[in-house]
Structures are given as C-alpha cells and as structure tokens.
Design a protein that fits this description.
The protein has 339 residues and is an alpha+beta fold. The protein has 13 helices and six strands. The strands form two sheets. A four-stranded antiparallel sheet has the order 4-5-3-6, covered by helices on one side. A two-stranded antiparallel ribbon has the order 1-2. Helix 2 crosses helix 3 and helix 6 crosses helix 7.
C-alpha cells in the first residue's frame, strides 16, 4: 500500500502575540499598518531579553520575510526559545516547521501536543504517521480519530486521506476511532497525551492574542504521492516512506484583505461592525469558543462604513454550513457566503 501523504500547507494561521507589554503591542500595531521595520525594532530588544511573545513574533517575521530577510533557521531558533517558555503557538509553529525541514522525529512530540490542542494540520500529520507507522508506532484507531478531527475542521487533504483509510482500516477500528474523535472534540482525549513525549513547557502562554490581517504562514508542502490501491484479502500493508518537499517562500497577498486560498470559494460571515476593533474582538472571542475555528483565516472586508468579519476559505457550501452550525451552537451568528 502506498502512503497517504498528500499536499498540505504546513503552517498555522498567522497571528501575532500582543500581551500587556506596551512595546510588544506597539510592534503588532506597526505590523498591521505594514511598517514591518518598526515592528522588528520594537520586538527585537524584548525578544533578546527573553519575552516569549516577542520571540514568537520574531519567528513569524523571519518565516515570512517581513522586515527582515526570510531565514527559516532563524525562525526555528526564535520559535524554540518561545516554546521553551510555554508559548503554545510558538510550539505549534516549531513542530510544523521542523517537520517541513525534514526533522520528522524531532517534530513529532511538538506536533502531537499541537494535535491535542486541535491544530488540524498537526492532526493530519500525526494521523498519517500513525497510519503508516512512520517514526511512531502504527495505531489505526488513533490515526482514524485524528484524521476525522482534521477533516471536520475543513482540511480537504484530511478528508481525502480519510476516504483512503476507509479502504484499509477494519470497521470495528473505524468505530473506535470515531468514538475517540468525539472524546477529543469534547476535550477528553487524555489517551492521546501519553503519546506526546518531549520538552515540557515551563508555563502556559496566557497573553491575549491579536490576529493581523495577513495571509496564512505557508512554509512548504510535502510531495504529492500516488493514491493507495485496494489491498488484496486482508494482509497488512507494507510500511511506506513519506517524503517532504523543499520549503517554498510564503505567499504574499494584497492587504488589508488576503486573497482566498486554493482550498475553496466559500467563507462564513460572522457579523458586520461600525468599528473594526469590534470585529477583531469577536474573532478572538469565537476562536476561544468554537473548536477548529482558529484553523481558518479571518477576513476584515470593508463595505462603506462597515467592517464585515468573515472566515475561510472553505471548499464547499456544505463545509460552510457545518462550520456555521458549530459557530451558532457556541452562541454566534453565521451566514455562508459564496465568493
């Protein structure tokens, strides 16, 4: 059987940490205004002094090449420093970038913890590794659970891989995987945590997050692989060898509203506001309530004096309806929008 790796952008939604520190916040404000050099000048001395939010923001800057020359090795160093102090978003980015750079065994502990926090790309990677038995032990039940959660978050590659898994994983194990996925959705996936060894964060990052209107931080994609062919009878499939392509530069999008990604032509609209700050506040509130919403890109769409808050992209109207259902269940308003 061939491996299940498909094309995926191994990055998280680009956000910048802006805690109580006035200087870090000033850097975020400068970044959002397109003054990247001033943002770097605010963050660098704080990052050198050990501020984890500033260190995370410096990692984002070096990964995107904004205000500095792009350098993935320097980005890794800043992410690692912030992650060692318990900055969870830095840890997520660190694992994804390490994996893309080819250090799969070193990345897996970070990615497993990121998958616990609901990061769909990490769930896709860890689920694939568990299915293939690559780097970590093969476990089809847990693989199916993680891939189910990644697909439910709207990741099209995960949906495609889930269909392939259905051809190989016995029905009883798929049912166990669905039950485990439901437990993970409810925050009861303790069984996953035992499989995530690695450095223990010193403290959780509790600083409020402000999300800039910037494109997703795309750092590369694994190579395309042929789809698995049906296995004869019930023999165990041979172990595959996934490959990762070289890094590609992050895409640039027109500001203030990024262009939609290739995943689909749908978004969901969460509200319209006279003050842009109210739209940002709603996004921060909803991402804390709706599991998987943080995997999508926020869009601040200007319409005269109004600012419309939208999220996406989504691959179909059905995907938009499903996301709206989760948002409405959390007490928010939501309307699917065809682009």
């Amino acid at each position: 059987m061939k491996h299940l790796w498909g094309t995926i952008a191994l990055g998280t939604l680009l956000g910048l940490s802006a805690p109580a520190s006035a200087d870090v916040k000033a850097g975020v404000d400068a970044w959002q205004q397109g003054d990247y050099a001033r943002a770097i000048s605010q963050w660098r001395p704080l990052a050198d002094a050990g501020d984890p939010d500033a260190q995370f923001n410096m990692g984002q800057a070096y990964k995107l090449g904004r205000g500095v020359q792009p350098d993935l090795n320097v980005a890794l160093d800043w992410y690692r420093k912030a992650a060692s102090q318990g900055h969870l978003r830095a840890e997520d980015n660190l694992g994804l970038l390490m994996f893309q750079q080819g250090d799969r065994s070193g990345a897996l502990p970070y990615l497993q913890r990121a998958s616990q926090r609901g990061e769909p790309r990490a769930q896709y990677i860890v689920g694939t590794a568990l299915f293939n038995g690559d780097t970590i032990g093969k476990d089809w039940v847990r693989a199916y659970a993680l891939m189910t959660r990644a697909a439910a978050s709207g990741l099209p590659q995960a949906s495609a891989s889930l269909e392939q898994m259905d051809k190989y994983i016995p029905e009883d194990q798929r049912k166990q995987g669905l039950a485990m996925a439901a437990s993970l959705e409810q925050g009861k996936g303790a069984s996953f945590a035992a499989a995530a060894p690695g450095p223990t964060p010193v403290r959780p990052s509790t600083s409020p997050i402000r999300t800039a209107d910037l494109p997703p931080s795309t750092i590369g994609e694994p190579a395309k692989a042929p789809r698995p062919t049906p296995a004869p009878a019930k023999p165990a499939p041979p172990k595959p060898t996934p490959q990762v392509a070289a890094a590609k530069p992050a895409p640039r999008a027109a500001e203030p509203v990024p262009a939609p990604a290739a995943a689909g032509g749908w978004r969901v609209q969460l509200g319209a506001f006279g003050e842009e700050g109210n739209a940002r506040a709603l996004w921060g509130k909803l991402t804390g309530r709706v599991n998987g919403l943080s995997a999508y890109q926020p869009y601040l769409v200007k319409a005269g004096s109004l600012t419309r808050l939208q999220a996406g992209p989504l691959g179909s109207g059905a995907d938009a309806e499903r996301l709206c259902s989760r948002i409405k269940a959390a007490g928010g308003d939501c309307i699917p929008k065809k682009l």
